């Protein structure tokens, strides 16, 4: 049976683990998730005309937890975040969770010149509003220029 390519301790039992080549524990620790369908159209690099790219889901590295229980966390980068609010006796806004996101990002790195293009794999899921630090721009209707 195949084992995890990182820890080598855990057997890859599920189809998901076999696809990822990681056990669930390592995938969670490293913020690895399956690649979504590619979003960029198959056109040459706008800078150098190369047809070869590296497609990557970039991750952000951050810390989570309180006091002496702080863990480093790796998460796929996204456009914006969910707002969580705790009700009850200690009501208040909760810190943004790097894994509770809207709109996964992916980047295409041109193998020819290194130019990087960003895409969002699920733009339909991105909420719009100043509270999300997002704004709708539609260059097809009226003037967006201010
Ligand atoms: Zn592992
Ligand atoms: Zn290029």
Strand content: 25-35%
Determine Rg (CA atoms, Å): 19 Å
**Percentage of helical residues?**
under 10%
Cα distance spanning the termini: 61 Å
Number of domains: 2
Largest sheet: 4 strands, antiparallel
Ions, cofactors and other ligands present here are:
zinc ion
Order of helices and strands, N to C?
HHEEEEEEEE
State the assembly state of the protein chains: single chain
Please describe the structure with a list of short key phrases separated by commas or semicolons.
27% strand, 8 strands, 146 residues, 9% helix, mainly beta, two-stranded antiparallel ribbon, binds zinc ion, single chain
Describe what this molecule looks like in 3D.
This protein is mainly beta and 146 residues long. The protein is built from two helices and eight strands. The strands form three sheets. Strands 1, 4, 7 and 8 form a four-stranded antiparallel sheet that branches. Strands 2-3 form a two-stranded antiparallel ribbon. The longest helix has 7 residues, at 24-30. The radius of gyration is 19 Å and the shape is flat. Bound molecules: zinc ion (2 copies). One zinc ion binds at residues 4, 6-7, 10, 22-23, 25-26.
Brief summary:
Helix content is 9%, strand content 27%. With 146 residues, the chain is mainly beta.
Task: Describe the secondary-structure layout.
Blueprint: H1 15-20, H2 24-30, E1 53-56, E2 59-64, E3 71-76, E4 78-81, E5 85-86, E6 92-93, E7 101-110, E8 116-120
Antiparallel strand pairs: 1-7, 2-3, 4-7, 5-6, 7-8
The structure holds zinc ion (2 copies).
One zinc ion (ZN) is lined by residues 4, 6-7, 10, 22-23, 25-26.
């Amino acid at each position: 049976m195949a084992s995890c390519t990182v820890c080598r301790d855990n057997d890859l039992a599920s189809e998901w683990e076999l696809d990822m080549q990681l056990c669930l524990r390592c995938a969670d620790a490293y913020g690895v998730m399956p690649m979504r369908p590619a979003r960029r159209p198959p056109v040459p690099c706008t800078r150098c005309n190369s047809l070869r790219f590296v497609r990557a889901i970039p991750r952000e590295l951050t810390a989570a937890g309180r006091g002496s229980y702080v863990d480093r966390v790796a998460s796929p980068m996204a456009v914006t975040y969910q707002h969580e609010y705790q009700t009850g006796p200690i009501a208040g806004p909760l810190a943004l969770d790097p894994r509770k996101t809207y709109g996964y990002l992916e980047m295409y790195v041109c193998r020819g010149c290194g130019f990087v293009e960003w895409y969002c794999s699920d733009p339909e899921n991105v909420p719009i509003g100043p509270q999300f630090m997002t704004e709708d721009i539609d260059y097809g209707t009226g003037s967006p220029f201010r």
